[in-house]
Amino acid sequence: MDRAQKEKLVEELGQIFESSGVVVVARYEGLTVAEMTDLRARASAGETSVRVAKNRLAKIALEGTPCGSIAEYLQGMTVIAYSEDPVAAAKVVEDFAKGNQKFQILGGNMGGTALDRAGVEAVSKMPSRDELIASIVGCIGAPASNIAGAIGAPASNIASILSTIEEKAA
């Protein structure tokens, strides 16, 4: 890799660290190609990206970014998982780590906040952006549904009372 390619890679990594909602660093030493392929497939399904980069270049790219705290984890064979959704990458990595003992989550960063191993696990248990939006929409829609039910209920009650009176009269 020549100097121009390294500079381009550092620039790409810098943009990733600037724009990602969450970045997780894990050690992948001992994983087979099939296992790494499985990780990448899970990541793409979960709107997450996985990247293996030289630690030295990643540390250069981290300088001056909100994710600077993860530089300490960049030793050995590391992989970086990142996503715009502040929870997606943590969920994918935690799910993969449960089924693979060789894959060790080291830590990460979410919105400028450093995360240790326990922090990444806690973030993975949070609802995703889409789940939160659905919950908010449900909360907003519930009062309208209750009002419609309340308005419709008296009319249905009156109709059933009238039909009962009509049956008794007949």
From TrEMBL:
Keyword entries, A-Z: Ribonucleoprotein, Ribosomal protein, RNA-binding, rRNA-binding
Native source species: Salipiger aestuarii
Function: Forms part of the ribosomal stalk, playing a central role in the interaction of the ribosome with GTP-bound translation factors.
GO cellular component, one term: large ribosomal subunit
GO MF assignments: large ribosomal subunit rRNA binding; structural constituent of ribosome
Pfam families (alphabetical): Ribosomal_L10
Family: Belongs to the universal ribosomal protein uL10 family.
Record protein name field: Large ribosomal subunit protein uL10
Gene (UniProt): rplJ
CDD domains in UniProt: Ribosomal_L10
